[in-house]
Amino acid sequence: MGLAVGLILMAGAFAMAGLQLGEQHRLMLELQVQQELRATAELMQRDLRRSGYWERAQDGLWREDNPSPARNPFGTISVDAGGQRLGYRASASDTSGFRLADGRVEQLVGGRYQPLTDPALLRVLAFQVSLNPVEVPVGSPCATLSVLELRILIDAEAVHDRRVRHRLDALTRLRNDRFSETCP
Predict the structure, then answer these.
(1) Residue 116 and residue 43 in contact, taking contact as beta carbons nearer than 8 Å
(2) The whole model's pTM is what?
(3) pLDDT tens-digit profile of 60-99?
(4) What span, in angstroms and rounded, lies between the C-alpha atoms of 100 and 135?
């Protein structure tokens, strides 16, 4: 009788240990997916904040000897209609961008796309980029500052366990605000 009770307790202990190990594996996988998405978004935000670098920025300032300042030739960021491809220039010789391809986020570097997310760890299900221009009044009633906000949405799941899914929503403000002063 004591042997039967001991075996039942041992079976219960092994079942609990198995459940604990499975749950620990799922939590570790969830943490890896979350960290991968955060690192990807941080790399994207950091690179995008450098977009539009112009070594002749002084040409874009109004001065008495320069009444019509030049516009930054590298300050344009383009997003395709579906929001799954983003392009920008960081300098005269550097065209960069990001896109969703084959379940991974890729970055355009040196004319070639390279994966940012690890395809062995996660599968990106959705990648959405949107630009939102925000007009901010500046002192004078006729002056405004145009600020670009960029929202990045990434939805991904673990390759080895479809139940592990994470969604990341990142919002960042881009540099190279545009100042305008027009009165009606």
Answers:
(1) yes
(2) 0.74
(3) 776 777 667 777 766 678 788 788 888 887 666 678 889 9
(4) 30
